[in-house]
Design a protein that fits this description.
Blueprint lengths: L18 H19 L8 H30 L21 H19 L3 H6 L8 H17 L5 H21 L14 H6 E2 L3 E2 H21 L3 H20 L3 H18 L3 H27 L9 H7 L2 H23 L8 H27 L9 H4 L5 H18 L2 H6 L6 H5 L3 H4 L13 H31 L5 H15 L10 H27 L1
Helix pairs in contact: 1-2, 1-6, 2-5, 3-5, 3-20, 5-22, 6-8, 6-9, 8-9, 8-10, 8-11, 8-21, 9-11, 10-14, 10-21, 11-13, 16-20, 20-21, 20-22, 21-22
Length: 537
């Protein structure tokens, strides 16, 4: 009998790295390194510096990509007329749910701008923090460029690690009045010197930046298989936690707590990932204690630490937590060494999720009780956390309650489309006199992104924005098994979305948030394409 040789299947041809992909990756490289560090005149123009940097860089990317596409279409050789041509698809058939969500979000911003009392202010966001229609247009443009032209290389995330490390190191140095860049030289107001830090600006904005970059570093330290890169990510994680300790902002603590809980639940289904997660937690707590040693070198002459941060930096509880994490890490590494590839029951992450869910419900219940039923009991330092009133959250309660009133009193059209992008200042003007008792003469933000969107672009704008955020999270969770990079990217989205409850959007950190939304969709599109290719074989 004639023998038949079995041929190995042809190897999948390596995908060519196109000029379009290279341009998009270089764009991300610049956004992850130079963008957070860029400034021209210390803190005096820092918001505008970041705003114009993002606008110009994104504009260059869009124009370059458009020219390449047009050139490619002109130079494309004519197709053989004898070959059967595939049926052309309509444009809407190429668009995903996320694409439509962005289109609707931008469309609502356009309508809101046209209906606003001052369309020019709504276009530029000049009454607010430059979050007008123009910036929203560039967010959308960046999204479509990244989702269509991004190609994954790990060096982009290594660049984020090094860029964020510089920001974190400056924040730590600034907290002890060490000013290597001369950012404080021309400042005369001590309060501004205390509140501003690094090359980001206000401490709340530093917390916002940390809530984007640090979760990605933790996830990358767990996902990567390269020891050197894991060490880099861990150092970035530790410095990030130290920087967070210097930024006495509730938004950062809230974001950090949520993403650490999510990571614990997510990584608990794999011993390898769980041990690496606890290693990152150990490094974080270790850097908090190194910050204490750093403080001793300067006789504790610093801008000060909030009470919650003092637990990690100064108190003995921090040492206990560090020791506990170190022991757990050691045990997990030992178990993995003795019994490699051990499988953890699916019941573990489910049980953890239930426990943390019940804790969250309990916290909400306690807050409702002391805010609505027992409003007299003295809660001491917990008053600002669990009793919601006008004073809650550094008088955020005052602004949130009035924001609900403003929405309730708005016309039907304003309820649908708001008063105009970033026009919160004009909507809140009637309450400026009442705001004086808290030391502020005015405000251009509700210090809650969701309320801000509700007032400025209405219920349609808020719903389209929530569709973007929730759609990103849903798709990332669905395809995370196909591509673990989705865990890293969606963690930045979730953490930012959580801290946004008590923070504000602006051109300093929010562009990075939209970039990670775009990266999530890019990885999802790639996972779908690979799945489709496998199913057709």
């Amino acid at each position: 009998m004639a023998s038949t040789k079995h041929k190995n299947p042809a190897a999948k041809p390596k995908e060519k790295y196109s000029v379009q992909q290279a341009l998009t990756n270089y764009y991300l490289l610049v956004m992850f390194t130079l963008f957070p560090l860029f400034f021209t005149d210390a803190y005096f123009n820092i918001r505008h510096d970041k705003y114009y940097f993002f606008i110009i860089l994104t504009g260059i990317l869009v124009i370059a990509e458009f020219l390449i596409i047009m050139t490619a279409s002109v130079d494309k050789p004519p197709e053989d007329s004898k070959l059967e041509k595939p049926k052309p698809k309509h444009l809407y058939e190429e668009l995903s749910f996320m694409d439509w969500a962005f289109i609707v979000f931008l469309g609502v911003n356009v309508i809101s701008t046209l209906l606003s009392a001052n369309p020019l202010d709504a276009l530029l966001g000049s009454d607010g923090r430059n979050n007008g229609l123009l910036l929203m247009t560039f967010y959308t443009a960046a999204y479509f460029m990244i989702t269509r032209c991004f190609k994954y290389f790990e060096y982009i995330f290594v660049a984020l690690a090094f860029g964020s490390m510089i920001v974190y190191a400056l924040a730590v140095l600034n907290s002890f009045y060490i000013d290597p860049l001369g950012m404080f030289t021309l400042l005369t107001d001590q309060q501004i010197i205390t509140d501003f830090t690094s090359t980001i600006g206000n401490k709340n904005l530093l917390s916002s930046y940390i809530c984007i970059a640090m979760p990605v570093m933790i996830a990358m330290s767990v996902i990567t298989e390269k020891t050197l890169l894991r060490a880099i990510y861990l150092i970035a994680t530790g410095l990030g936690f130290a920087a967070l300790m210097t930024a006495d902002s509730d938004s950062g603590i809230l974001g950090m707590a949520v993403f650490m809980i999510i990571y614990l639940v997510w990584f608990s289904n794999s011993l390898v990932r769980l041990k690496r997660f606890f290693l990152s937690a150990t490094v974080m707590l270790l850097f908090a204690k190194l910050l204490r040693l750093f403080s001793l070198c300067f006789d504790d002459k610093s801008k000060g630490f909030d009470k919650f941060q003092e637990i990690f930096v100064f108190s003995g509880i921090g040492w206990i937590l560090l020791a506990a994490c170190a022991v757990i890490t050691g045990i997990l590494y030992l178990i993995d060494y003795k019994k490699p590839n051990i499988t953890i029951s699916k019941a573990v992450p489910i049980a953890l999720a239930v426990v943390f869910g019940l804790c969250a419900v309990a916290m909400i219940g306690i807050m409702v009780y002391f805010s609505c039923i027992d409003t007299k009991t003295d809660l001491g330092s917990f008053e600002r956390i669990i009793r919601f009133n006008d004073k809650w959250g550094t008088h955020r309660g005052f602004m949130w309650i009035r924001s609900i009133w403003i929405f309730g009193d708005a016309s039907f059209i304003e309820k649908l489309f708001g008063v105009g992008p970033d026009m919160f200042y004009s909507a809140f003007r009637p309450y400026f006199n009442d705001l004086l008792k808290y030391g502020d003469s005015s405000t251009n933000a509700a210090h809650n992104e969701y309320l801000n969107y509700l007032i400025t672009i209405g219920i349609t704008g808020l719903l389209s924005y929530l569709a973007i955020v929730c759609g990103t999270i849903k798709n990332a969770v669905k395809y995370a098994k196909e591509n673990p990079m989705l865990i890293a990217c969606v963690s930045a989205v979730i953490c930012y979305a959580v801290q946004a409850i008590v923070n504000l959007y602006q051109p300093i950190t929010t562009p990075l948030f939209f970039i990670f939304i775009a990266l999530c969709e890019a990885f999802v599109r790639n996972a779908k394409a690979e799945k489709s290719a496998v199913s057709t074989v």
